[in-house]
Amino acid sequence: MVLLTGCAHINRPSSDAGPFWSGRIALQVDAESAQSFSASFELKGSAQQGELTLFNPLGGVVARLVWQPGSAVLHTNGEVRPFDSLDALVEQATGAPLPLAALFDWLQGSDTAVPGWNADLSRLDTGRLTALRNQPTPVATLRVVLDK
């Protein structure tokens, strides 16, 4: 399991920029050949229009995901790749499907239901969010720890 540290904080760069979060995100998929993904992140905007930037341990940008209605684009290694949907874009960037649209709600304290996922928001006041995907298999665990 990936251990993360941090405290809750929602930064608001400007009143029209929408919510902004930063911290660490980790995904573990319990398959025959277990997969895991971990990165620092900055997330801003909304499920309809936003940006997710993923950073390596040294602070370098690994990927930047940008979406708006009708467009989802992955910027990585100097390449720009368009995708048909935000879900396809997120799966390509992280290696597994994630409910990014619901993540915005979860980070704001709203327990939005996602088929197969169970979000634990009980520690959100300390900057910690955990979501478990039971269906479809394999089981996956998403952990988010927000920066102070």
Contiguous runs where pLDDT drops below 50 for at least 5 residues = 1-15
What is the gyration radius calculated from CA atoms?
15 Å
N-to-C CA distance: 22 Å
The number of distinct helices, counting runs of at least 4 residues, comes to: 2
Element-level helix/strand string: EEEEEEEHHEEE
Q: Based on the structure, what is the oligomeric state of the protein chains?
A: single chain
Profile the largest sheet: 10 strands, antiparallel
Beta strand count: 10
Give a short summary of the structure:
This protein is mostly beta strands and 148 residues long.
Explained architecture:
By secondary structure, this protein is mainly beta. Helices cover 11% and strands 45% of the residues. The protein has two helices and ten strands; from the N terminus they run βββββββααβββ. It has helices at residues 86-94, 100-107, and strands at 10-11, 20-30, 35-45, 50-55, 61-68, 71-76, 79-83, 117-120, 128-133, 139-146. Strands 1, 2, 3, 4, 5, 6, 7, 8, 9 and 10 form a ten-stranded antiparallel sheet that branches. Strand 5 and strand 6 form a beta hairpin. The chain is globular and about 35 Å long.
List the helices and strands and how they pair.
Layout: E1 10-11, E2 20-30, E3 35-45, E4 50-55, E5 61-68, E6 71-76, E7 79-83, H1 86-94, H2 100-107, E8 117-120, E9 128-133, E10 139-146
